[in-house]
Amino acid sequence: MQKNRVSKVVIIGAGIFGVSTGLQLARRGIEVTIVNDGPPANGASGRSLSWLNSSRMRSQAYHRLRMAGIDRYRTLKARQPDADWLSFDGGLTWDADDETNEIEAAYRHEVSLAYDALHLAPDAVAKITPGVDARAITRQGAIFNPGEGWVDLPKLIGVLLAEFAERGGTLVTDSGRASVVVEGGRALGASTSSGTFYRGDVVLLATGPSVPKMVAEAGQRIDDATPVSLLVTTKPVELPLKAVLNTPRVAIRPAPEQRFVLDAAWSEEEVVETSEGNYEVRAETLEGLLAEASRVLEGNPRLELEGYGVGRKPIPGDGEPVFGELMAIPGYFVAFSHSGATLGLIAGELLAFEIATGEKHPMLANFRPERFEAA
User: Fold this and answer.
1) What is the rounded distance in angstroms from the CA atom of residue 22 to the CA atom of residue 335?
2) Which UniProt keywords apply (predicted)?
3) Do 344 and 325 touch, CB atoms closer than 8 A?
4) Are 354 and 249 in contact (CB under 8 A)?
5) Cα separation, 248 vs 95, whole angstroms
6) How many angstroms separate the CA atoms of 84 and 152, rounded?
7) What is the pTM assigned to this prediction?
8) pLDDT per residue as tens digits for the range 62-85
9) From the centroid of its chain, how far is CA 95?
10) Rounded distance between C-alpha atoms, residue 48 and residue 312, angstroms
C-alpha cells in the first residue's frame, strides 16, 4: 500500500473532473475540500451530450485513455445495474452525402483497433437498433458501435458527491469566483471572491472552460479552442430509440424519464454572445434543432422543448486532454478536456493517483500541460 504524500487537497470546480478526483482522494483517506462558484454541475458538465465512446479517429494514446474511461463506467454499471442515468445500448453514426463522408474510412480504422463496429446499410439499421428513420441515413450507410453508451452527468455527480460526503469530504457551493493562491513558487490553496482561504498541500483546477485563462494568470499557457455549446432537452416522449445518434445535422442521446437531449454544431454557431458576456438563443434555433431530431427518428414524432443549457464547452487548442501538475508551479494541478463524460471517472482516478503518490502515471504522459509551453 502506497503512503499518501499529501494530507489535504483543495479542488476548484464541482463538475465531473473535480468531483471524481475528490472522491478518489477521499477514498485514499485524504482530506478534500471542493469549492464551486454555484451548485454542483452548473457548468459544462450540466450541458454535456455525455456520449461514452472512442469512435472515429484520434491519437492512439487518447483512444487508450477513452477505452479505460469506458471500462470504469462498465464496472459502475455492473455495481448499479438499475441506474437509469447510465446505459450501454450502443451508438449509431452516419455522415452527410458529400465529399466529407468518411464512414468507410472510419469503419476500417475502428476495425483495425478492434473497436466493436458494424457497417450497416440504411435498411439494415432497424433490426440492429430500432427507433431510426432509415430514410434519413445516407447511402454510404451508418456505423453501429454496440459497446458505446451514455451517462447523465448531473445525476452521476450527485451519486459521487453522496459518497464523498460519507467519506468526510467537504463541498462548498455558491462560493463565488475562486482562484489558486501561489506563493513562493508553489500552490498553497484557493481563495474565494469573499476572501475565504482554503489551504491545501495540492490544488486541482477543474473549472472547465475557465482553466486556460486561470492558468494564464499564473504565467502559464494552455492553448484554448473552447466554443459555445447548446444542449436542448425534450419533454418526455415514448420512442423506441435507445442508442446515441450522431448524424450530420443533430446528435441525440436518450435521457432518464423518456427524455432526449440534442445538440448540433450548426445550432451552436447561431448562439449570440452579448457584450455583457451573456448568451442569446433564438427560438428559431431551438425549433430547428427539434425539427432535425424529429426528421431522423422513427415516425417523425413531434418533439417539444423542455429546456436548454448554453455556455462554453472546454476544448484544448490541440483537441487532446490536459491533465496533471504544472511543471513550473509545484502543487498546482489542472484538468481540462472536451471528453468530460467519457474520461470523467478515469481522469479522477489517475489524477488522484498522481496527487496522492507524487508519481507520474504513464497513461497521462501525452497529456501534460507543459506541451503548450514547449510549442
Assistant:
1) 12
2) Oxidoreductase
3) no
4) no
5) 5
6) 9
7) 0.95
8) 999 999 999 999 999 999 999 999
9) 23
10) 11
**Residue count of the chain:** 375
- The stretch 12-37 carries a mean pLDDT of 97
Helix (H, G, I), strand (E, B) or coil at 354: helix
Q: Which residues pair with 280 in a beta bridge?
A: 272
Residue 336's pLDDT is 97
pLDDT in tens, 288-317: 999 999 999 999 999 999 999 999 999 999
Domains of the chain as residue ranges with CATH: 8-46+153-223+317-374 (3.50.50.60), 91-146+227-312 (3.30.9.10)
Q: CB of 134 within 8 A of CB of 123?
A: yes
What is the β-pairing status of strands 149-151 and 251-255? unpaired
> Rounded distance, CA 238 to CA 242, Å?
11
Q: What nine digits make up the cell of 337?
A: 478536456
Rounded CA-CA distance 270/284 in Å is 10
Residue 191: all three cell numbers together: 481563495
Neighbours of 237 (CB within 10 A): 15
String of b and e for 62-73 (b: at least 16 CB within 10 Å)? bbebbbbbbebb
Picking from 85, 79, 62, 81, the residue whose alpha carbon sits closest to that of residue 16 is 85
Strand partners for 252: 245, 262
Between helices 16-27 and 153-166, what is the axis angle to 10°? 30
- At 27, give phi and psi (nearest 5°): -65, -25
